[in-house]
Structure formats: structure tokens, C-alpha cells
Request: fold
Amino acid sequence: MTSAPTILATCKQTRFHLLDDNPSAEVDVEGLGITVASPTPESTDDSSKSKLKGKSKAKAQGKELLTDAHLRLKAGIRYGLIGRNGTGKSTLLRAMAEKLIPGITHPTRISILQQIDGEYTAGGTDGLSLEKGVLESVLSSDEARNQASRTADLLSKSFETEDPIHPVRAIREIRHEQATKKLFLAQKMANLKSGTRGLQARKDLKAAESNLETSQEILNQDSESIDADALQADTQAAIEMLETVQSRLEAMKLSDMEKEARKILLGLGFKEDALEKKVSTLSGGWRMRCMLASVLLQGPSTDIMILDEPTNFLDLLGVIWLENYLQAMSETCQTTILLVSHDRDFINSVCEEIVIIRDQKLNYFKGNLAAYEQDFEEQKLYWGRMKEAQEKQVAHMEASIRDNIKAGKKTNDDNKLRQAKSRQKKVDDRMGLQVNAKGGRFKLNRDLVGYHLSSRAEIEVPEDERGASMSIPDATELRFPGPLVSIEGVTFQYKRNDRIILENINLVMHIGDRVGIVGLNGCGKSTLWDTMGSILWRSFRSGERGDPSLTALALLMAEVEGSLNEGTVRGLLSSMGLPGRIASDVPVNKLSGGQLVRLALARIVWNAPQLLVLDEITTHLDFHTVTALATALSSFDGAILLVSHDRFLIRSVIEGKRDIDHKLDEEFEGLEEEETEESTTRRRSVYVLKAGKMVEQSDGVEQFERSLVKRVQKMLNTG
Reply:
């Protein structure tokens, strides 16, 4: 049986003790390295001995995601974690939540909503109780409260009997459980540390083992052998612990928690009558909302709250509500928020600072995403101009050097040869960065000290941190003129006396049209697609994997049935961001969520359809890839029908607008390009599907967003 990949985390700051009872609310870990290692069968033998000695070997065999990075999170700040797919965002979050990183102590309270193999889990909670109602399950997922309740119940029941031994047994059972936890942490510390600190950690481990053995002996002690002093001391300790735990439970105020849980669930889209439904009856998307609710409920009592793609199953109303909730939460507590999202508008609205995973390092920017992108472009322009000017200067100096050498050799002029040598030294040593690390002017005698430094660092122009580009084939020409879609007066209901799902739907689309449809969950979008199924012959459906044992190349080759040769199929997959061995060697069930989206796109565009129907296509894509996708779709000469909660994608692809806050690729073709061309302007329309009716928005998605903002404000004010 193959073991799961192991996360190996190291850092310089192993002096921190995992059992520190007063940890800092901030995280400041230097020299962080994270490696994902797939253990080989040989590595499982004598694993206890090889954990320390074989650490460097295991690290070398794994995939390094971070090297000598600096993890720095300040209390109460909302951070957005960005980086291309595969750079290690989810792995870093998991390493933090599971406290695999030395320097994040065990008492640090961390709650996390994360994705593992496409499934959501909620860490830092006791999980959802599938057979309980939605509201009850969310309330019972509070790990700290559950532990306090279990302790209080155990102690309370022990005092309900007349046997004086029962409270003693109860307090000793609790102490034994605590000793077991301390042994686990001591083992963890011994595995993490080496050298002098490792020696002390192993001494602590022996002490913890001895403490657990003593605790076990005391727990197993016969009632007759417990003397009066021990009986009195343990009974008094049980009384004091019960009072402490009961006070803690009273401070938690169950009634207030229930009110807050109800507010969160309603904000995330649950109806009042759905709060009593069993969790086991819910779909995966609604269970994810329950997990998100449980993490949000514990937010004020945690030090760090981590949210990995929390907007994936939310409609736009839920996204806007979550934006407002997270902003309001940071005003009342000092919880640090670290989130990952493909939704540009969501990150821009929520996050105060940006953490960028790039070149196996963590970089930081004070400001939201829009400010970061603007600053990045300014830095790229600044350093680009500086490098260009310096290259011209170097070219001039090198030409002068060649002339001096030529003239010196011809006339045997040693002065010219010395001058050429001096100038060459200046080119080699003094050309490079003109500023020091503090931003001041570079001085050789101050900033270039040390035997290992002989020249200035070269000027490096920042490169765009974007995902692989995408390219969509042009649509085939229509054999006959006319609309691609023509629907008039469509009304639908499942039974004659049931409510009307769709009412008087009209939609006509021609080649080149751009139509976007937005709406809340349950508004009838899925029914509309099912009704139009006979017309929309090429559509994107997230989660369509085909045969998961095949590679992307084999799967697509089987679907084209000889219409395209292997080279053409490889080229198509590469144009979608699935190049080389990723396409030919990796089975579909091993592809990431973002790679599956790229494969799904390749499967619907290989025969150049005239109409693309895209349903929530941005799920699992990082926002760099979303930008590349928007650019590819903008130049597609066929028609596009897009259903999405992503405001950026609707604005760019359907409305053809270049956002002020979000820079698009130069190849993007929108309204500005249409105005300069003589061809007919595309039809661009955004519709809202509400109560079965489709209403066009004169101001596009912005009009729909404004109406939802008002609704969210009303919900929060009455909540």
C-alpha cells in the first residue's frame, strides 16, 4: 500500500517550545523550508532512527516548495496568499494548520477550511455530525467548547454519586489524557530538533514517558490503597477544575453562539427551514458551507483562521456577505486571517496585505491586490528602464575598450592598454545595482564589503507571475446564416400545479455574441441548461473527468476518434497549459483541479465549435490563470454563453471592460479594440435570472452587485 506524501518542514527557529503556554499571537519563522516527499518502501524500515539522520536525504528526494523563506504574520491582519497553481499554497496552509512548522506552538489556535483531493475539510473543529441538523452540527463542531463540555460532564457525573472515589477517578482520567497529549508533543519535538536542542528535547521526551507511566499507575490504583490525603487532594482538584470549566462554558454563552451560527448560515445561503435538515442529506456544496460556517463561528476564539477557496460554492450574494463578515470580524477581534481565492474582487475587498509565493520564497506587500499589481507594474517599468540605460552605457564602454585595445596594440601605447583594463574592471565590478538594500545610493566602501563580494549585483527586472497562457481555436464558419440559439417564450414547470421554474424565457444568440447570466443559487440556472440541452451541443461542465485512469492525451485522442493526429492534440493540450509529460504521463485522477479545468476546455474546443457554454469555469484556477483565460476568451470569434459568480470574468469576457484595478494581458480584445476596428461591434449582454425570469442589466454585473450589497447590509443590520 502506497503511503501518502509527507510534508517535511524545517526552520532556523527551533528554539521555540511546542508546549509554550503563552505563545505569541504573531507568527515569525525564519529560514522556513517545506518539502513534499513521497516515501519509498525502503524508507519505512527503521523509520524511528532515520527521522533525524535521513532528514536531508528525504528532503532531497522530495519536491521543494519553499527554501529559506520567511513566514511572517501579524495579529489581526487579513492576508491574501497568491501564487501560481503548484507553487505550494495549499501545502503551506496544511503545514501551518497541522503545526508541522517548528515555531508554531501547539497552544496556537488555528482553524482551517481546506481542500484535500478536491474535498473540503474543516480543521481545528470536531467535524460535522452527519446525523445532526445543520444548526446543531455547526454548534457542536466547536472543538474547545466540546472539550470543556466533556470535562464538565465527566466531573459533574462523578459528584452525583455517593462514592467519594468517583471524583478522584475522574480527575485522574483527565490528568492521564493530558499526560498522553504531552507525550505526543514531546515526541514531535524530539523529531524536529537536533544537536544540543535535540538532546534536551529527548530528555523532555523521557520525562514525558515517565510522567505517563506514573499517571497510568495512579489511574490503575486500587480504591482501597488510596490514602486519605490523596483522596482529599484529588477531590479538591476535581472541584476546582469543575468550577473553572463551568465558568469557561458560561463565558462562551451558548445562546449567543446559536444566534451567531444562525446568522452565519443564513448569510451563506441557507433558508430558515433548512437549518433542521440532517447534514447527511446535503450535497457536497452545502456541506462545504456548513464547514465554512463552523470555521467562521470559531473565528473570534482562534489566533489564525485559514480559508482555502471559501467562495467556490457560494453565489454572488454569499460572496459579498462573506466579504462584509470578514471585514467586520477584524474590527472586533485580533484573529489573523489567511485566505486563498481565485476571485480577484474578493481578495481585493477583504485583504489588507498580500503574501506572494514566488521562486520558493515568501514575499510581502502592504496593500490589497490591486495596489500590489500596480506597484509590480511600476517596479517592472522602473527596473526595466534602469537596465536598458545601463546596457547602453556598458555597450558604449565596451566599444571604447575595444578601440583602446586596438589602438594600444597598434602603437604599443601602454597608457591606452592600462586605460582599457581599468575600464574593463569598472564594467565587471561597478556596473549593476545603483542602490543599496536600504534604497540609498550605492557606495563601494560601505555596501560592497566582505571577501566574497567582488562586484555589484545585477539589475533584475521582475517577471510577470502568470500561469501558462491559453489559446482557443477559432470557430468553424457557419454553413448557413442565422442564429446559433433562438428561444422564445419558454416556460417550464415540473408538474402542472407546481411553481413555475422558468417563465417566458427569450434568448437569441448569433456568432460573436457575448451573453452572461448571473443569479443566486436555486434561481433556475441548471433547469435552464437542461431545457436548452438539445441546442447547446458543446458546453463546459466542471467535474467531467472521463476515464480517470487515462492520461489527458489518451483521453482526448479517444474522443477525437482520428479527426486529429497526436501532434495536433499535443499542441492543443499545450495551448491550454497541459504541456509535455503532464499531458502524456499523468493520469487524469492525478491532475489538479486547475489542470482538470484546462483538460475540460480542450475537450470542448478541439472541433472548433461556434458556441461555448461555460458554467462556473473559474473553480480551482488561480487568478493568474483566470486572467489568461479571460484573454483567450476575449479573442474567440465564436459566441460565448457564460454563467459565473466571478465579477471580474463577467466584466472582462462579456462586457469587454478593462478593469482599473486588475491589469489584463496586452492580447486582450475588448471594447477598446472593437472601437478601433471597422467590423461590427459584438452584442454584449448580462442577464439576471430571478424568480424564473431573465432580466437584462443595463449596467451589467455592477447593477446586480449593487442590489446584492444593499441586501447584505440589510441582513447584517438585522442579524
Notes: The mean pLDDT is 81. The chain has five domains: 6-123+303-318+333-367, 161-252, 371-447, 467-538+610-719, 544-608.
